[in-house]
Amino acid sequence: MRSLDDAPYLDFFDPAFIADPAPAIDAIRRQSCLARTPIGVLVVEHAKVIDLLGDPRLHSSLLDFVRIQGLVDGPIYEAVATSILAVDGPDHTRLRKLVSRAFTPRSVERLRPSMRALAAEQTERFVRAGACEFMTDFADHYPIQLICELLGVPKKDYPLFGGWANALTWVLSLEIGAHLDEVAEGLVGIGTYIETFIADRRVHPEDDLVTALIHAEDGGDRLSGPELRTLIASLLFAGYDTTRNQLGIGLFLFTQYPAQWRLLAEHPELAPKAVEEILRFQGTVTVAPRIAYEPLVIGDYEIPVGTIVSLSTAAANHDPAVHAAPERFDITADREPPLTFGGGPHYCLGANLARAEMQEALVVLSQGLPNVRVAGDVSWRPRSGIFGPTTLPLAFGS
């Protein structure tokens, strides 16, 4: 048995690693199943990542990531601490049971016609121009409108929710300190709105998710008012910004692999496989952060209690022991499912919804944007949180 001092070291705050993690990850993989980092360990082996995602000795470390950035109390800290993304054990199980019925495959299937119609409506606005800025013209609108429609938010308020979601997403990064004012403003805005919205739905119920959550019951148990507010806010920023950025990543990848785009246009039935390959090749979320609540052994390394254990889903998705030619982007390949949505108790609640949204969007976009290509400078968010393009200018047509 070895201590963590014996593990290879990886500084994942190094700008060179942030710019291009693959060479460093490959070097670690040749030596070990994990690396020691400035804040804990990073697990890179597919088999270990899968096992640890469901290990009850590991809990969500979202709150610990907030603490190491100097945020230890106040409204933002309390909101994170009570979020379904941060709680564990019986509290987490209880919340998931009460809300999970809204995200079953059957529930999501009913939304596909709305997804298809909205994707077509958004695309129609720029298709004749032969060019677009994909993030502002499509990705900024499509997922937020779908999540708002699911919640039951009136159309006139969609832009408000988009702004709040953009602000709250910094909670899932290592840059929250630089964006505290944005996060605080988003938290107050959405909290005030949701409180009024919930009160209205209690009196005037509708066929929407908020009404369903108000009446969700399991053995006499119901969500409290604060739990409702926190849960709806969590669903908003977890279900919007991730899908938004993953769509941007997907379109960028297809500009780099134009034969794959043509193949998708000719065979729209490949959309489900295309989404899985995008998620595997470059996920918008690259790490599942955990913390050890009990001592454990990973490989032959002893992991003490309190160690932050970052499970690299990105590295696992490129592990050559599992994926043949992992650096090949191929929407026809039969591969193991990507781990981008995590696993275990914290498996992404909205995974079914996100997959369906992307599948429907890609079918519409591949039909309407032939010969898609980059038409300017692409800028990117840092890899220290939710990753994806901030600008993605595209041209298409002949």
Tell me what you see in this structure.
The structure is a single chain. Helix content is 50%, strand content 10%. The chain has 398 residues and is of the alpha+beta class. The protein has a single domain, classed as Orthogonal Bundle (Cytochrome p450). Strands 1-2-8-5-3 form a five-stranded mixed beta sheet. Helix 11 packs across helix 14. It is globular. The termini are far apart. The relative contact order is 0.18.
What percent of residues are in strands? 5-15%
**What is the succession of H and E elements?**
HHEEHEHHHHHEHHHHHHHHEEEEHHEEEE
Contiguous uncertain segments of 5+ residues:
none
CATH architecture type: Orthogonal Bundle
Radius of gyration: 21 Å
User: Strand sequence of the main sheet, in spatial order?
Assistant: 1-2-8-5-3
Give the class from helix and strand content and strand pairing.
alpha+beta
Secondary structure tally: strands: 12
Question: What's the overall geometry?
Answer: globular
- Please give the share of residues in helix: 40-55%
Mean pLDDT: 90
Distinct helical segment count: 18
Question: Largest sheet at a glance?
Answer: 5 strands, mixed
Q: Output the CATH class name.
A: Mainly Alpha
Q: What is the third-level CATH name, the topology?
A: Cytochrome p450
Query: Between the first and last Cα atoms, what is the distance in angstroms?
Result: 61 Å
Number of domains: 1
Query: CATH homologous superfamily - what is it?
Result: Cytochrome P450
